[in-house]
Structures are given as C-alpha cells and as structure tokens.
Amino acid sequence: MYNIVYYRDLVSAGVSTRVIRQAQECCMRRLCRGVYTVVLNCSNSAHRKIARFIDDPSWTELHSQKTRAQLRDDFSYQEQLRRLRVLSYSRYRSSDTVWGTSAALLHGIPLFGVKSGPIFVVHPTSGSRSTEIIRTVRTVDKADQCAFSHLVITRPIRTSLDLVRQEGQQAGFAAMEAVLRTSVLDVEGELNLRFGYPSWFRELARKQIVENWYPTITRLPTGHATARRMADSLNPVSESIAESFCSFDLHALQISGFEQQINIYDARGFVGRVDFVHEETQTIVEVDGIGKYLAEGREAMNRESDRHNRLLSLGYTVIRMRFKDLLHLNTFATKLYAQAPELRKFAGAVR
C-alpha cells in the first residue's frame, strides 16, 4: 500500500543514489531516512525502475490529479504522510512504544496545529534524540499498550491523556472527548443522531469513564488530579475539535448552566440543534459559523439564515465563534462577555 519503498530495495533494483535524489523532485517523496513513497508513474526513462515499485495505483492517481501546492495545503494528505512515516520507519528498537502525537496519528485522534516532526516513542531503559525520532525513557503499563500493524503503541485512552502533557490541556481535552465519543459509538454501532442524542448516550459515556478512564489515569506517572478533573468534564456529544475547544474554554471560565447539542423549538416546530445554549441568559454559542454552508450552495445558506432569525425571534443571543477565537482563553472570554455580559454572574475564577 502507498507504494512504500526502501533505499536498499531501490539500490538492489539498480537505481543509483543520484537518480533517487533526482526522483524526489519528481515521482517520489521521502518519508524518513531511507524510506520513500512512489507518487507518480513517471515518464522519465531514468525513473522506469522506480515505477516498478508501484503497487497502489490509487495513490499515484491522487497525485496526478493535484498539484504539489494543493497537496501541501491539504491537511488530511499531510496527516497521511506523517502516518506513513510512523508506520514505515525502520529503526525502531525492541521495547519501543509509540506514544503521544505519533500514536494519535495512528489511532486517527484529531490534532490541530501539530507540525510535522520527529516520531515519539518511549523505551523502558534507552533514550535518544534525532531529527527522525525522540525516544524518552519511560515505562508504559501493558494494560495501556496495544498492537498496531507491526508496532506497539499506547491505547487510545492513554494516548489522549498523554497529549495533555505533550500538547497542552486544550488539545488533550479535545483528544479525550474524541476518544470517548468514538468508544460510545463503537459500542452502540450505527446511530441516527440527526435530531439529538438519547439520554443513555451520556450515561454510557459516564460508565466508560468510570470503568476505563479512571484505571488508566491511576497508571499515569503524574497529573492524576488534573486528568481526573478533565475526565469528569468530558462530553461525548462534541462533534468536532472546535466544539471540544469551546467546551474546554467554558469549563476554564467555570460558567455554570451551559448545555451542549440541544434541540430548539418554536411555534413552527423544530428550529435546529445548537452547539451550546445557556437558557437562563438565553445565550447560544455556535462554533462552526456560516463558512461551512458556503460550499453547499445558496439553499443551505438560506436555511441557516432562516434558522438564525428564528432563534433571534425566540429571544436568544447567538454568538458565533470562529476557530481562532477558541485558541486563546482571553480572546474567547472577551468576545463571549462582550455579546452576553450577563454570563459574568455565572462565571467562577479562571483556572
């Protein structure tokens, strides 16, 4: 898959070092030291031997349809390259356990703003650092490990908890909510959540936190109290990393009374499901804004406009948070209180 080829295989096939270097500007991409992916069936006669390693035509077809600039700006594509790098790295040591952002990539846990960099592993006795890999001396309990392809990596719950330490509390919280939501959906299978979440959805999540998250937290080397407090604040109804970031900010401000993913009705019937609502102050916080409707055409925009007007007619203040508004607590709080100053009396001290 993905036309992965190693330097030794290229040399054995008669491809010179000079051609390998040239091909990286043409039909190959370097993933890490000595590991490449063939991305095009090149017409250059000097690269014909490289084309023999193509075993995944869909991968080359993707690259033939998009320019390098388009792929460079494609987040999902860049994430896939990073995932391939972790999987194809050839210098892992015995007893290495992939952890942190590298394990998150393999599990498909959403990340934001994490740039491409070294692979993160932990080892019980050996530590090292290079541009390719950072190996930290640390033990991971067997209960927090799982197999992924040929690798040993941290389980999803442990990975999300480790991200709190590695990437900060907001990123870790979003990862924790994503893992919790996925685990609940996996238990229940296919669900129609278009018109809301059943009460047992949150109850099942709470059960999983007690049975699965609490024991994992006790096995962390440090930060038990913080991890426990964050776990108790998790909500499985967050449908995006933006919602999780917003939820984290509201918890950080200690604003009581907000509910998430709530259906709103008026005299005409169902208005819509809103991201966050504070009924006592009639404040609604939406985190996706209207941008997502632009790609769906004018009809979708008109539906959103009608929904917005119906919410206003019910007396709600609707605050739209752009993603960048969620990244810094001061920015978030300033915008929130500027449009809904009555929320201040429901807020505690900033954590």
Question: How would you explain this protein's 3D organization?
Answer:
There is one protein chain. The chain has three domains: 4-83, no CATH class; 91-225, no CATH class; 238-346, Endonuclease, Chain A, CATH 3.40.960. With 351 residues, it is α+β, with helices and mostly antiparallel strands. 46% of the residues lie in helices and 17% in strands. Helix 7 (100-107) packs across helix 8 and helix 9 crosses helix 10. A four-stranded mixed beta sheet has the order 4-5-7-6. The chain is globular, with a radius of gyration of 24 Å.
Largest sheet: 4 strands, mixed
Strand content: 15-25%
Q: How many domains make up the coordinates?
A: 3
Instruction: Give the overall form.
Output: globular
Helix count, DSSP H or I runs of 4 or more residues: 16
Order of helices and strands: EHHEEHHHHEHEEEEEHHHHHEEEHHEHH
Structural class by SSE content: alpha+beta
Largest sheet: spatial strand order: 4-5-7-6
CA(first)-CA(last) distance: 47 Å
Uncertain segments are 289-297
Mean pLDDT: 92
Radius of gyration: 24 Å
Counted beta strands:
13
Helix content: 40-55%
